[in-house]
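tool=predict chain=A
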Amino acid sequence: MNKILNKKLIISIISSSAFITVLTVAVIWLYLSNIDRLDIFHDAVNVKSIMGIILGFAILSILGFSILLFISSLMLIIAYAHYERNLKKYNGIEHDFALTGMFNCLISCLLLILLTSILYYIKLNSFIIISLFLLPSMFFSFFLTNNRILKSRKYLSQDSNEEDSFLKKWSTKYFMPFFLLTPAIAQVLPLFFLLQQFEVAEGSKEFTQASLIIILALMYTMLSILPGTIYINEKKNGKILRIITIILICIPTTLAIFSIFIRPIPNMIINMTMNLSGISDSRIHEFYIDKKTHSHTMFNSALWSTRYYQDIPNRFFITGVNIFTLGDIKLICPARIIAPRKASLKITPDNTNEYDRKIKQLKAIAMQCVPLNKNDIYTWDSPISDPIYY
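tool=predict ok
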């Protein structure tokens, strides 16, 4: 009875408007705090009508980011689900099934880093690179699957008739290693994403750089496959609710661990939320402002390319980025904010202070942004010839 009451209490709290508002306000606060523009926070959170929408996009962003990071676990679970009915009769095989998928991921991760390093020095044909990755990965998967599962006496001895053993069927022998390789193949996309985010500090040694990248990549591989291995090992107990609870705890905990070592991750998720919801736009736009509401002297020509046109006497034009729009507030920034904004999402593993320096640089440029009422500034990206610059 207490459990039912606790569940109802948790559900009522999560679904309450107050809870939704608090979480949404937290997302907005984190975004504005990251660019040091909390001066517009109060005006922004007064817009109550779209709080639920923002939270929805925040959940969607976390979900999308989690799927990207934990896609190897998802593929391992799918692979196990394909064979689950036939593997149930083999006691302890779940552990080796999960372990084989994990080792495949680790070996493929090391192979991918090695090939990336080779590509850095030698330009090779893309077909050769794909072959150098897939062939050794498949060989290792076949070797490990046969050694730990298909030819293991521990499992073959559990069959009443070895000739009719599921593990000896030709379809199992040839397809199970491929299924167990899918988590390793699936992790290539997030690994490439993470490797592209790496930046090297000036003057650091190549050995140090390579060591840190390998450690972080292997750490990612281990943590990303963890929910899948937990699911498979717990599935035999049949406690679905327990499995879901463990995974729901495991994924945010793993994301938190990632965020300790890869500090831009929270900002990536928050920026994704703002971009998906349309609150933030990272593209450069042309804007026009009525001279009756604001003077062109507010916008330094070197920063904003402030200009006017002979045939449009009552308006002046600027070039900028609409970094935040909510309610009646538009925060327009100089186009130069794009580079430091992208740089703040890069990872510098060999210099822990580099991230702080990039954030400070982003905040310094964000202080040049101008908050305007949405009725005072309009987007005009259609080209107009013969501008006259102030």
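The first helix runs from residue 2 to 15. The mean pLDDT is 81.
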